[in-house]
Structures are given as structure tokens and as C-alpha cells.
Amino acid sequence: MRKGTIISFYSNFVIVSDDTDRSETLCSLRGRFKLSNIKPLVGDKVEYIKDHDRGRIESILPRRNVIEKPRISNVDQVIAVFSISKPDVPYSTIDRTLANVSRSIKNILVVLNKTDITDERRLEEFKHIYGIYNLNLVSAYTKMGIEELRSNLKDKISVFAGPSGVGKSSLINEIIDSNLKIGLISESTNLGKHTTTTASLLKIPNGGFVVDTPGFTTTEFTKINPEDVQKLFPEIFAISGECAFDDCLHEFEPECKVKELVEKGKIPKSRYEHYLSILNEIKSQKIGDVRFDKKR
Fold first, then answer.
1. Which of 13-27, 192-206, 258-272 has the lowest mean pLDDT?
2. Contact predicate 67/44, CB 8 Å
3. Which residue from 22, 60, 125, 191 has the highest number of Cβ atoms inside 10 Å of its Cβ?
4. Cα–Cα distance measured from residue 182 to residue 190, given in angstroms and rounded to the nearest whole number
5. Given this model, what pLDDT does residue 192 score?
């Protein structure tokens, strides 16, 4: 019996990367998986039997987590990639993307690409606002920061996420020496077009896997309570226990420690404003749901 990781699907088969020698084997699934309606996912840890050049999966090991769109299991971290030059991604989009990512995975590495064409003042501003996260400043063009980024991916399953056009595919190409299709920046919108439609794990030469998925690019928020929005902003949630009221939403309440730190400049104003924007969006949805229920 061998152990491995499902890295992709091929028709009715899966490709498994062996945990020991990283060899790849085309494996079939035992009939009982279909009878039990058990669907394997990319990222699943499995036990399999190999016979010559083919294999058969015997069991799927328990999953540590599952993310959606597309569904991937056992993700260690999300690499959230942005740029503030060609395209200049608004901070509101960055904050909504990070908040959405953190609903599924708390371990986030924020990567700012295209630093070679970014104004130094903007770079310092970005570091001030997003220093609460693990932060890598890189350039896929000049290769600056690539080795540090590669070391942060070693022996992990890492999902790349972020808006189109920021250079996710270019960075992955540098990290794993692959040839992913790279999308062109749309002249009309100054944003790129999605070039990745399915999920498969790509091997990093020194260990680990990466996957480029559009799943985290959505910035819509559903199925979340207003009081949980602050958990998506680590610098706000870390201070929330110091507010006068346990149920403080940091909006209109008196003796709010979060608002105090915003006024002192210790919590970036833009982060707080984007937190309030998402909070009010969620509260409006809840009011709408109540009205709809009453009409029914």
C-alpha cells in the first residue's frame, strides 16, 4: 500500500503523486466509492495500490479542510496576489478579496507583484496598510523576491488567488518553471481575463504544490452574520476584546477601542472603512431576508 496526493483528474481516472518518490500514477477508483457517493478531490491524501504503470485507490484519508470553486482539499495556505500598478487594484478590492479568503483559510500570504514598476511611495503605503499579514514584495519580471516566495511554498499545498491581470500565472511559471497560459491585460478595463478554469496541483521542484484558481476572486458575501465580519479583519478582531461592550460592532457604539485606534492612525482608515462597507452590506441582506420572510 502506498500513500500519495491526488493532483488532477483525467476522464474517469485520477493522477496521484506518490508521497515518497513524487512519481505520478494514473489510478482508478474502487467501485464502492461511487456506490457510497464519495467523490475524490484534488488535494486528497489517498492510499493506493500500484501494479506496473497503473494504480487503484483503496481509501481517501480524512480531509483537513475543503475550499470551494473549484473544490480543493488539504490546503495549507492561500497566496493572495495583487498589484497596484498595471493594473492598479483598488484597496477596496484587495480588502474584500482578503476578507473572502479568510472565511476559508486563515493562513494567508499577501504578495504584491510588479514592484519594479510601482512608485516607492505607494510601496511604503501598501506595507503600512497590509503589514498585519505575512507580506512578500516581488517582481515576476526582475525576479526580485521570487526565492523568498518559493521558500514560503516548500512542502505545502498553496492556492494562488487574486484579481485577474496581477501576474499569478507569471509568478507560478517562475516558481515551478512551467508554462501556464498568461492572459493579456484588457485595454478597455485595465484588468486581465481569467486564463485558468480547472484546478490541478502543480509540483514545486523542491517540494510542495501550487494551484491557480479563480475561486477566491469573488467579493460577494453571503451566509455570514454581522458580528462575524470583524473576524475577517485581523487587526480589528485582535482589538475587539478591549471595547467597552462585548457585542461591539465598532460602528456607533461608545468607548470603542477600534474607532479610537483608527482615529490615532494605528489601524488604517481604509481598512476600517472597508470593514464598515462589508458590515453594512451584510446587515442590509439580513433586513431584506426578514422582509422576504414576512411577505411569505
1. 192-206
2. no
3. 60
4. 15
5. 44
Distance CA 117, CA 163 (A): 18
Residue 90 grid cell: 483598488
**Would you state the pLDDT for residue 132?**
95
Pick the CATH number of 226-295 from 1.10.40.50, 1.10.730.10, 3.10.20.80, 1.20.1250.20: 1.10.40.50
- The span from the CA of 295 to the CA of 182, in Å, is 49
Report the DSSP beta bridge partners of residue 130: none
Pick the CATH number of 2-60 from 2.40.30.10, 2.40.50.140, 1.10.150.130, 1.10.1660.10: 2.40.50.140
Longest dimension (CA), the chain: 70
User: Residues 6 or more apart from 296 whose CB is under 8 A from it?
Assistant: none
Structure confidence at residue 286 as a pLDDT band (50, 70, 90): low
Percentage of the chain beyond pLDDT 90 is 67
Return all residues near 142 (Cβ < 8 A) that are at least 6 apart: 116
User: Exposed e or buried b for every residue in 5-32, given b needs 16+ CB within 10 A?
Assistant: bbbbeeeebbbbbbeeeeeebebebbee
pLDDT, one tens digit per residue, over 52-108 is: 889 999 999 999 999 877 789 999 999 999 999 999 999 999 999 999 999 889 999
